[in-house]
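Sequence of F-box protein At2g27310 (Theobroma cacao).
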Amino acid sequence: MHFLKTYKMPTNASICHHPEIKTPKPMGSPPPSSSIANGGGGTGGETIPNLHPDIIQAHILARLDGPTLASTSCVSSHLRSLSTKENLWRHICSSTWPSVNQPRAKQVISTFPSGHRSFFSDSFPFPNLQSVKLNVKSSTLATELILAVDIYYQGNPICSKVEEIETSSSWFLSSPFRVDLIDPKNSTPAPIKYGVGKDNTGLKHMEENLSLSWIVIDPARKKAVNMSSKRAVSVQRHWLTGNVQVRFGTVMEGDEGWGSSREMVECGVVVTCGGNEGGDMHVREVSMVMEDMEGKGLSGVESLVILEGVMESGRRKKGGKEKYEEFVERKKERKERKERRDRVLDLVCLIAGCGAFWSLILFTAI
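Predicted 3D structure, token representation.
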């Protein structure tokens, strides 16, 4: 039980009330780590290895979230063998992302090197990529992608969907990359219990309470990545329809060098919510696009190369609004530089044209 003293457990766990688990007495200092791993080094109470494995799994490990369960597996070989059980990680994945309960998604995840544990490791850290190195010539592009998407309002899932995309056709590879997850004619049945008014208070509420997970799965590589910023990076009302557009964006390094339009690219997901003013709102549209620094949409083949680099880059830190705002600011600066160059070029052309005109007049007069 010394493990429970040295490791912080969830506050809602009631494992210490189990009849076979006694609360440890206060101690001046925790026992050595070797004692914890071997199950000794204390007086009174039960040690973890002495408990039946079923009790540990049902009353301790099953109550942990993904990051805590991963940390628990590092304590000892005994806990590692119990913490890596597929059923524990399957439960964590299905409760974190309800969309992966769909049969096709479950079947693909089961082929990952460590099943749902590998999938969680790929999908839980949200990407904020700084140094992805891409090589288009050596890339073996995916022929199929599976999208597992979950939208949450105040922490509760209101929309979960799985979409399969065939990516080997010439039409997909040459067309602008865009995925429309929900038909605009069919809004989600789960309402958002908040009426957004015309002031900024309602928009702020949507920014703080609507979250998104958009996991891209490559069945062939047995890899996955979460392309959502999780929290909204911008919220605005459409000037014509009045619908609220909540944007989730991930900014990445592109496949071209400094100064090019694809120096950085953004994977943007827009969730469009509509409804009667002052009443319930519903998710009406969900779409993903890939854009460069000039706002131009990337083609299917260009987007696949970017996504491949993301999946192969390993564990990532969480991105968010600050990174998106930096990207927007750099886009603005790039646009201003281009406009200045265009004005200088126009002025040079005007001067050259005037010079040629007056030269022609003088030549004619002579």
